[in-house]
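Please, structure for the following, as tokens.
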Amino acid sequence: MTSSILTESHDGIITVTINRPESLNALTAESITGLGDALAAAGSARALILTGNDRSFSSGADLQGSVQDGGLGLDEANRVIRSLIDLPIPTIAAVSGPAAGIGCSLALACDYTVMSEESYLMLAFTKIGLMPDGGATALVAASAGRHRALKMALTAQKVWAREALDWGLASEVAPVGTQLTRARELAGAWAQGATLAFAASKEAINQATLTELDGAFDRELDGQTRLRASADFAEGVAAFIEKRGPKFTGR
């Protein structure tokens, strides 16, 4: 069986690739565990790249698998997000196609986000009767502000790369198909840089701007637990799988 998470190490740079192309890199509990293992092994590196493939960074949780079976495992997903933020090395997301749901959180948890011109961020949770999770309620608001975070959460709109850059959700936009090349250029430069200074800088900035992240994890976990028990969530997943519009009842 092909691994859902691939890792490659070269010249002090670890590249972690989400590898489920048949589902636009939708994440399962196995994928999240694999990501956690990859991050735990990244301590000796000098920079890290997180990416998918040319079609997709990650379309979010696998609705036809893990969510139906009781959820992606929010505790584990939150630990992965926290580990990514706390890594003492520069981290870069190379984003193509969708970075949706937990995929959006993973992209924003990186220190630097390079988005392909045809990529987008999306919080589509309300379409299936859920709320944003994976720390998204803090990560999006910290970068884009309250009203833009609410706009993403309530409308489930796609925020395309150029708009994401304007909103502060992306670091830069690269021509289609070059996002990974650009991420490698950045990682190569940082791998030769002042590692201790990078670590101190990102720790100080993250502590100043993500003061509510752990609280967000707790609130999201509580909210998702209640919402997953609702009739609206069951209807939302059924509608998604059946490719029809949901009929929510507020129960």
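DSSP finds ten helices and nine strands in the chain. The CA atoms of residues 26 and 145 lie 27 Å apart.
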